[in-house]
Amino acid sequence: MGGGQIERWQSVAARKRSTRESILQGYSKWRLDRVPDADVLDVSELCLSKLTDKEKVIVHHDATELIAAIVSKQYTAVEVLWAFIKVAIVAQDTTNCLTEIFFDDGLTRAEECDRYLEETGNVLGPLHGLPVSVKDHILLKGQDTSTGYILWANKTIADEDATAVALLRKAGAVLYAKTANPQTLLSLETNNNVFGRTLNVFNRKLSPGGSSGGEGALIAAHGSPLGLGTDIGGSIRTPAAFSGLYGFKPSVARMPHAGLMGSQAGMDNMVGALGPIATSARDLELFSRVMLQYEPWFLEPPLLRMPWQEEVAKGKGLPKKLSIAILWDDGVVAPHPPIRAALEEAKAALLAAGHEVLDWQPLNHHMAVWTLICKLYLLDGGKEYHDTLNQAGEPAVPQTAWILSQHTQAYTAAQTWPLNVEREAIRTQVLRYWNETVSRTGTGRPFDAILCPCHPTLASEHDTTRWWGYTSYWNLLDYTAAVFPVGRHQKDHKYDWDLPAARNPTEEYIHSLWDAERYQNAPVSLQLVGRRHDEEKVLAVLDSVEGALKKARKIEESKDERD
Amino acid sequence: MGGGQIERWQSVAARKRSTRESILQGYSKWRLDRVPDADVLDVSELCLSKLTDKEKVIVHHDATELIAAIVSKQYTAVEVLWAFIKVAIVAQDTTNCLTEIFFDDGLTRAEECDRYLEETGNVLGPLHGLPVSVKDHILLKGQDTSTGYILWANKTIADEDATAVALLRKAGAVLYAKTANPQTLLSLETNNNVFGRTLNVFNRKLSPGGSSGGEGALIAAHGSPLGLGTDIGGSIRTPAAFSGLYGFKPSVARMPHAGLMGSQAGMDNMVGALGPIATSARDLELFSRVMLQYEPWFLEPPLLRMPWQEEVAKGKGLPKKLSIAILWDDGVVAPHPPIRAALEEAKAALLAAGHEVLDWQPLNHHMAVWTLICKLYLLDGGKEYHDTLNQAGEPAVPQTAWILSQHTQAYTAAQTWPLNVEREAIRTQVLRYWNETVSRTGTGRPFDAILCPCHPTLASEHDTTRWWGYTSYWNLLDYTAAVFPVGRHQKDHKYDWDLPAARNPTEEYIHSLWDAERYQNAPVSLQLVGRRHDEEKVLAVLDSVEGALKKARKIEESKDERD
Fold first, then answer.
1. Would you say the CATH fold of A319-562 matches that of A42-298?
2. How many other C-beta atoms can be found within 10 angstroms of the C-beta atom of residue A212?
3. Cα(A141)–Cα(A144) distance, integer angstroms
4. Cβ pair B371, B336 in contact under 8 A
5. B209 assigned ligand-binding residue
6. pLDDT in tens, B409-422
């Protein structure tokens, strides 16, 4: 590297990866003797291979249970963290899910938790001792925040924590690792030139989704019980869906959102939300409750002064008979058979549990909405993204190239106003449509929630993601959405449903991908959508939906046993 | 007017005024035999000159009392409306406050209210029979919405009501007139080429403020008990202050806001709020409560799902000892002596009532904030405003010319992002400052509210308004603010305070205007500011502040009597 010349991007990446590697070498005892070849697809069991039996039990607990176990001194915070660290190390070596690693800090903090509990009998906070992982672009004091950009790598050590991170610390959580996000963050896969590509734990030919894909991979591997993600088009929900986890995208400005590194700071025509990825629905509630318990509206100006209604989230006031709408197909890309089958199963289970199930007729505008969303994502024609890549001389990864090709016109300020008007018109149209469903339901209420795919495919094969419509549509509307797992796809499963004829090139491409073998072992997930500011209600309805599914499966199992 | 040529602007204005005149001629019995000459300054008594004694009593009631009196059949809705109509006619002829007049519709509706009550014993809604006036740019079905633009005059008959208007109707209110707003709406005076200039009822050489200046004039004249205004820089508060009324600017998106005609539709870098102008503090609460009772968040996507907390607004949970901060001077333009004196009086009264009063140290950024605000108002360099004037060939009125000169650069979309970042940084700075006041107060809480001028002058002499900082600053922060009257200025009053040396040309200009004679008879008002989403609390604190002032004055009076 000559004087005044910028470092080649490959060299920045190598330096960044070597720093990570040298930290991991301090934990070499917990690394695999041999990292499996690429053709070993499912590494989920391997990720647990360094654990004792007790540690295996530990990493299978959800956050709620872990905290209770630490507080009741069944486990120490230190042994809990060690269990997750051991998994995280193998998960990193097999899926490339971590960016910044600071296990030592985490262990120090875990010791502090244990000592405090021992000495005072009190907890540090409602997340006492809980290990929590954090998506790369979320500021964590003292840690680099390269956010998948070569330009930012090694140059973005955070001076302070993001609000959500500060609140996690206040609540007694233990931070120990940051996780991969894709170049530009504007991707539903996770790949960047700094750290490379992140892989799906259940099938490494597949993506863990994005942009919170490092979280998805790490948590699915049981290398973290709970993680912080962000979502402006599906970036919490897609990783949750692709890895069989729970993900929650609240309405904009309900959860803390300050302290995120990213492009286009100050762009507020379409805004994202921070939320949890977890292994249980109740952990989504736990996270939300704890964040709002600290009245973050007194910390960040944009946040809404809407206290968390724990009782509502836990079902208070929720009618016994729900009216659930199913969006089977958004009119642009019909979902692949396993997802259709999952919706069918859920419908039957809901009906069996006494709920009402009707169709959400897709408004004939999902492609137009996507076109608008791309304009809003790229109001400068993508210039800032391109500039950030070009300044470091790094190439766009394929998913970046694809999304940046979706809109290339740079707008003036005044040209953005009609786009906002269009956005509001769409929001009004859907609001009215939802209101009017009161005339179709038998409950005297409009629909309680919408059940729909999270993505038209199971976990995407790398570089094949082309349709964000099932998630980004709800971002445009600023609706609340939770993703939850319903099963795992196996290649020999027969689905009673064929893909319909393709209606457009996007659908043609996505339908061409359908092959039961390709998606072997991929989780099957669904999405539950509520109205704006319906966070608590969506979680309450999710509990009912999961209850109905569980009950129906029990009946099915007992039938099978009788047969 | 030749074929294909556009109508000259003077002709459009003449047509519009003649339509209004012809409607008024249908009520000639209630017009003055002779409109007083311009040198008759105070027309407030004159406005009541056509009323019976009973009608005089009626128009001096606030909305709360009027509704109660109609519901208890002390008055009919028809006689109430007639009383206000009679005043409105004279107010129009002396202050030019009305735009669209539809007294007949109002009377029909008032009859309907009376009949319904008579026949069913029930009320139509919580505003049963209440006359309400509406600012011109707020859509009212069937009425033109020229909004002070020649281009729009006669061409903007509303297809439907604004949400707030629809809710007023639902609540049983009676609509009968629309009121003047200035050209562009971006003015704290009220003057446009369509209808001309609106005058202050108490001194016609002075402005009633703007942009809801028609409301201010009409309500101050007792030609309406309650009116709908909007505020993006002081447009509810300034008219309320200049006319001795109560005005309430809630945080953005708490009150209905859809259905407003105006320039820059879709510009959301800085957004306004709709709110009431009234003759009592309790009517501000009444209006807010009624609006939110209809859950308008299910009618308009941007609205926040934050139900009105009536009990909080009425003082529940409000500590007995409040900690009030006074912003004496924003560091740019020190207010004129009557306003300073009013703050001094309020301070003494609050202390006497046992409250704590401390100084709000102005952050050294009020001029910078104003510069940012002007950029946000005029992100296209004012092009859309200029175009709307130019397309009709109408000239800018002086206040338009002044505000449009404040920022002339057209930005790209990307150039607006750093402005939003700057806006958020300012919001964060003030949020933190407010939080930190907990260390200065003796209550264990940060300040409960800020008491400050609403404007550096009393009602402006026409075309002299130059400093919006005392109102627009709170818009930028999205804080809640209420304006309330504290007295009336008389030219022979001696103030124990001289204006300090001017610190900048704006202050120099505004201080040059100070002359006790010039502002003869102008109301003196103050502003009470709360944090974002503090609507209910601000009204509760306002009640305490008014209580303290009333008590102090009673003591003062009884002292005077003893002397």
1. yes
2. 37
3. 8
4. no
5. no
6. 999 999 999 999 99
CB atoms under 10 Å from CB of B316, counted, come to 11
Q: Could you tell me the CA-to-CA distances from A389 to A210, A463, A514, B84, B358 in Å, in that order?
A: 19, 19, 33, 66, 52
The pLDDT of residue A5: 63
Task: Assign residue B446 a region (left: φ > 0; alpha: ψ between -120 and 50; beta: otherwise).
Answer: beta
Please give the average per-residue pLDDT across A438-464, as a whole number. 98
Q: Take residue B527 and report the two structure tokens written for it.
A: 């502003």
A562 to chain B, minimum CA–CA distance in Å? 50
CA nearest neighbour of A485 among A326, A345, A319, A354: A345
The count of residues in chain A is 563
Give yes or no for a contact between A533 and A480, defined as CB atoms under 8 angstroms apart.
yes
Task: Tell me if B420 and A533 make a contact (CB, 8 A cut-off).
Answer: no
Domain B326-562 class, CATH top level: alpha beta
The CATH number assigned to the domain with range A319-562 reads 3.90.1300.10
> Contact at 8 Å (CB) between A249 and A475?
yes
Q: Is B135 a catalytic residue?
A: yes
| DSSP label of A224 | -
**3-state SS, one letter per residue, for B221-245:** CCCCCEEEEEECCCCCHHHHHHCCC
CATH number of the domain located at residue range(s) A42-298 in this protein: 3.90.1300.10
Work out the mean pLDDT of chain B and round it to a whole number.
97
pLDDT value of residue B4 = 53
Listed in sequence order, the DSSP H helices in B26-124 are: 53-59, 63-71, 77-95, 103-120
Contact (CB<8Å) A265/B417: yes
The domain limits of chain A are 42-298, 319-562
Using CA atoms, how far apart are residues B310 and B480, in angstroms rounded to an integer?
16
Give A18-67 pLDDT, tens digit per residue: 999 999 999 999 999 999 999 999 999 999 999 999 999 999 999 999 99
CA distance B194 to chain A (A): 26
Mean pLDDT of the B242-252 span: 98
In this complex, do B413 and A418 lie within 8 Å of one another by their Cβ atoms?
no
A533 touches chain B (CB under 8 A): yes
**DSSP state string for A488-520:** E--TT---S--PPPPSSHHHHHHHHT--TTTTT
State pLDDT tens for residues B353-374.
Answer: 999 999 999 998 999 999 999 9
- Homologous superfamily of B15-33+43-298: Amidase signature (AS) domain (3.90.1300.10)
